[in-house]
Amino acid sequence: MTKNRRAEDLSEEELRWLLIEKRRAARQDRLLHYKRSGRIVSVTPDESILANQSLPAARIEEIELDEDKKSPPLSRKRKTIDGLLFVIEIVAVVGFLFVVFNGLSLLRELNREVVAALEQPTLTPTPLLMAVVLPSGHHPPNSAEGARPNEAEIPEHLRPIMQSLASLPLPTPGPKQAIRIQIPAIKVDAPVVQGDGWEQLKKGVGQHPGSADPGEVGNVILSAHNDIFGEIFRDLDKLKTGDSIVLFTSQQSYTYIITAIKIVEPTDVEVMASSSNPTVTLISCYPYLVDKQRIVVIGQLQNGS
User: Fold this and answer.
1) Buried/exposed code over 153-174 (b: 16+ C-beta within 10 A; e: otherwise)
2) H helix or E strand, kind and range, residue 218
């Protein structure tokens, strides 16, 4: 094929071969460029395919990597946007975790508050209302004005306190409170009422408000008159250690054994103090028809039945 021939003078076959040669030349240039950059793969073509080709001679084709199919490199702006989105995602995850943990903490705190609200308060014994003087004090019935409360034995500066204690409401009797007392050695069998004021002791043996109930740890304080209103505690001075005192509730009975008997002044209120053991303390005026002091009988719990 001569170089000075015009394109319209060439046959269709010659034009086709001319186009193929130009494509081969352009392809060869690209292959050389990719070979220098290390981005080509050389393979040996199948001999059977070469034999069937109508090309003048067999050759080794060099297959270029299809760079056109590769994604174009990301721009700097796009990389920046992607980085910001990644940071936002991390911040969102951290924020979500914070909300979750904070919610769990709030839930635990709420559960603790609910449990605390539902818990029953720990019951504590009613504090003993310590009297200024020992109960049952009165003028004897043979005095000039007859039997009446003896306010003179109360120190003057303490009388307002005594009056305030006397005005406190009495507790409602419960199933654990004493309702009866028996002292076999002196044939005492009497009812027990709540309160040890003047009016209460007209009805029987009075239990001091706030003192322990029978069988409980503490001091059951019981008072009665010795020469008026039935003279229930007239013979306390005839008791001796080892004698028994039986207290009854609506549910059971408790036996106490006498461990001490003593004569004290009306202001010796220490005998009314609480005890670390189940104790009973009986108090009455002394001596008979004089009533200037108090006789105190103390017993310790032996058993309950």
Assistant:
1) bbeeeeeeeeeeeeeeeeeeee
2) strand 218-223
The model's pLDDT over 194-236, given as tens digits with 9 standing for 90+, comes to: 999 999 999 999 999 989 999 999 999 999 999 999 999 999 9
Q: What's the pLDDT at 21?
A: 84
* pLDDT at residue 206, as a whole number: 95
Taking domain 138-142+175-304, whether its CATH number is 3.40.47.10 is answered by no
Taking 70 as the threshold, does the pLDDT of residue 91 lie above it? Answer: yes
> Would you kindly state where each structural domain of the chain is located, as residue ranges?
10-69, 138-142+175-304
- Whose structure tokens read 């990719």? 34
Per-residue pLDDT band at 41 (split at 50, 70, 90): low
Enter the DSSP assignment of 265.
-
* Omega before residue 209 within 30° of 0, cis: no
d(CA 227, CA 42) in angstroms, rounded, equals 134
Closest to 56 (Cα-Cα) out of 119, 1, 115: 1
Q: Within the chain, what is the greatest distance between any pair of CA atoms?
A: 170
Q: Is 253 exposed, middle or buried (0-12, 13-18, 19+ CB in 10 A)?
A: middle
Q: What is the dihedral of CA 206, 210, 211, 217, to 10 degrees?
A: 150
Give the tokens for residue 292.
């200037």
> Would you say 129 and 195 are in contact if contact means Cβ atoms under 8 Å apart?
no
Distance CA 19, CA 299 (A): 132
